Amino acid sequence: MGYRITHGTGDIRAFADSDSASFNFGRACSPAPLWTGILCCTMPELSQQIEAALGQAPASLSPLAGGCVGDVQTAMLADGSRVVVKVDASAEPSLEIEGFMLSYLARESSLPVPRVLHADERLLIMTHVAGSSTFDAPAQRHAAELLAELHAVTAPRAGLDRDTLIGSLHQPNPWTESWVAFFAAHRLVYMADEAARAGRLPADLAARVHALADRLDGLLDEPDAFSLVHGDVWSGNVLAEPGRITGFIDPAIYYAHPEVELAFITLFNCFGQPFFDRYHELRPIAAGFFESRRHVYNLYPLLVHVRLFGGGYVQQLSSTLSDLRF
Hints:
CATH topology of the largest domain: Aminoglycoside 3'-phosphotransferase, Chain: A, domain 2
Order of helices and strands: EEHEEEHEEHEEEHHEEEEHHHHH
Number of helices: 10
């Protein structure tokens, strides 16, 4: 299915076959899972940990699909409530950071996220959010309203008080006065170097990323304000019921140019025309975003996937750089 967005006088116009969220903005249809691992304890041991954290033992535990950091279970507690439990068995557990990010979003914004009940490095327990990752047109418009409201939460600089995660990877967030400088150094160059060190990004391709980063001033604009972003909006991290969004999960938060969030959505086809029409009504999308800037922004999630998996993502990154004439 083809999808084309052009800028008119004060609005955006699109041509597609339907209102469903299946438009192919980019080359990737969905991100690969960002974590693989094993449960770090037996079910009885996990039940004991849940009881110690919450004061009541689970009546049942069952696997739950998804999760960028950790093995995921759903637990029915003795009082009848349902919670989601993540366990991180990796050498460098980081679930406390995910708990921090969810709590930050709950405190600083009205974005619907699970409520954190317990968080430490290896164990995260949060309220269960009903829904699936299927978005009808009203739900997409609701998502636009929620993210536009999130992007109205601002800071005077790019970054955050602490580093966070994108999937299972470290995401540096030093406070930086310039968005262009932040995105060049702490997104593109940082992740290219990490991917090269992991042996998944060839040296010549890393050099092309560095060359683009050196000339980023001519490709990106500074925002009017730095917006709080979820940072990892793809369909698996958004839950919905018919007509509305019920929750956002697995964030990768920081303060940024809000276009970086919109670009990520186009790369992985999370939402389609109803989303962008409604978002543009609330927060106008500047000319040139769909045609060029989104491709620059999407180098970052592509680098994340190169760092984790290599493979076809290397060619996709190379093709995107070629399209940008680097």
